[in-house]
Specification:
Number of domains: 1
Distance between the termini: 56 Å
Structural class: mainly alpha
Number of helices: 3
Number of strands: 2
Radius of gyration: 21 Å
Largest sheet: 2 strands, antiparallel
Domain Small EDRK-rich factor-like N-terminal: 1-37
Protein name: Small EDRK-rich factor-like N-terminal domain-containing protein
Keywords: Cytoplasm, Nucleus
Helix content: 55-70%
Strand content: 5-15%
Shape: elongated
Biased composition (Low complexity): 1-13
Region (Disordered): 1-31, 54-75
Length: 75
């Protein structure tokens, strides 16, 4: 059962790595949330940049008028 022991060692190693990252203050969820700056006015989905926001708006909400902040953005 060599693989069983390897699995346990791997889990312990990954747990130590996760604990070290947590102590260092590295939080992937917070970093990802910080990168999402633009919020869709219809469905409240978060997007990282205006170009992606405009593409989302044109594809998901074709009948709704485009918001003023997206007027000058070209895809």
């Amino acid at each position: 059962m060599a693989r069983g022991q390897q699995k346990i060692q791997s889990q312990q190693k990954n747990q130590k790595k996760a604990d070290a990252a947590r102590k260092a203050g590295i939080d992937q969820k917070a970093a990802a949330a910080k990168a999402l700056n633009h919020k869709c006015s219809v469905c409240l989905a978060m997007m990282p940049d205006p170009k992606t926001y405009r593409q989302h708006f044109e594809n998901k909400h074709p009948k709704s008028p485009i918001p003023a902040e997206l007027e000058g953005i070209t895809v």
